[in-house]
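User: Batch of two.

Assistant: Item 1 of 2:
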Amino acid sequence: MHCKVIKARALPDHHLEIEFADGVSGVLDYRHVIWGPVFEPLRDPARWAEVGIDEEGVVCWPNGADLAPDTMYERLKAQTTAAR
């Protein structure tokens, strides 16, 4: 893993504000992953807002859903590069 997630904040429309320990940060759109048995409950904005970070620096929810930090990191780095 490149780095641990140190901040995860739920935003409207299934977006997440993410910050990594090395300073890489930004907002990611997760509307495309809100399907299937684990993620379906997160369609409810109140459940989406329960986002947290586990001891490994992985973004997760109380129902067991989680997101790969490496993928998040690469997406944020790509956004930063594209913005230049």
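Item 2 of 2:
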Amino acid sequence: MTETRHPLFMPLIFVGGLIFGFGLGFSHMAQPEVVLNFLQFEDFGLLFVMFGAAIVTGIAFAIMPRLGRRAPLTGTAYGRRLKSFDRDVPIGGAIFGVGWGLSGICPGAAYASLGVGNVTILWALAGMFVGAYLQGVLRSRQPATSPSVAGDD
């Protein structure tokens, strides 16, 4: 089944990314030093940014399904994607956390950091791409399993 999307879907995704990146830059979260200071318990500004994002996301997740049964731009039904908690979740989280702690940057903020002129972040971005590629190679060698989706019977 081919999914038809609203013509504004991609431009709005771009605008959303632009707002996200601007917000990271404006809040100084695109600077690895700020993130590393947070991880060393010296600056808790990142908590306010994360809590603000969590509140906005929580409100959106609570309200949007009640406003309509389908997403306005894609036409797909709202639903939760359920994934079992397997050994890959804590292992992946630990690997992500170590990378975050070593570089002081997460993937979204890395692009914003590049946008504010931090060209040395290209090393971290290269590491993210290589790591993602290696994970994809390892995953392709495992037997295929399909994620469970709420509503699929």
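The two ends are 17 Å apart (CA to CA).
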